[in-house]
Amino acid sequence: MNSRANRLARVLADRGVGPESFVAVMMPRNVDLMVALLAVLKAGGAYVPVDPSYPKDRIDFMLTDAAPVLVLESADLPGVDEADDTDLDVALLPDHPAYMIYTSGSTGRPKGVIISHGSARHYLAYSTDTYPGTHGVAVLHSPISFDLTVTGLFAPLTVGGTVLLAPLEEDPAVEELLDRTPCTFLKATPSHLALLDALPSAFSPSADLVVGGEQLTGTMLSTWRRRHPGAAVVNEYGPTEVTVGSVVYRVAPGRRSGRARCRSAVPSGTPACTRSTPCCGRCRRACPASCTSAACSWRAATTPGRA
User: Which pTM does this prediction carry?
Assistant: First the structure.
């Protein structure tokens, strides 16, 4: 995959992709999509994930707003087979964009949020240090247009882990594969917990289950937790602008802690220790590291958006 990504990256660079340029990647979720994302990053560009199943009006808006230098719908571009498969030497700075994800926006109009290489590196380093399951097998089931996919895709690849592309649905072939090479890491929304409860245990991680994107309650977690007491469960919260996750609450293996035992919301937790300067979103001032407010984010991870 690395060789394929390098060859494609060289073709993209020849077509004008480089630092501070955007490439819309509009492909189904498969290995070619992973190759394309890596190639854009290796060429120095920033990828803009566009789900092909989106309504035409939304796709048209995103492509007009992002103004990409290329729209990539295939990893098999002319010349890619003959290209050099060694790594490119691209001069990247921490502030250069790595990707741009479109959120719904507070008004319902999609808003592009640009995440820099520096912010992504901080988050991924934190994830691989904090979630040992990323060093094993991660099941990637979510669309790349959601930033929770950043964790399940890039964290394992940066530490030699394995990414298995598979939907959360019964599939004997996938289950057999997971029986041989067990899933150790999964990131999902709380709504996926009921689905995991209904699926064979092989689809659930043995090391780390990270949930985010919605409010997590003890009731939602309880059934899964009884079946999988040996895994750590992490409630990870953070708006896209602060790079995937900024506050975490961890329920250690074998533990049913506090509000996780009851119907009320599991705490958002405390700031993740990946940022250098804490900043409270309510007052825009520095706040102590002990701040437990969900509004507390960290400047090193805060990134620009497009109106």
Answer: 0.85
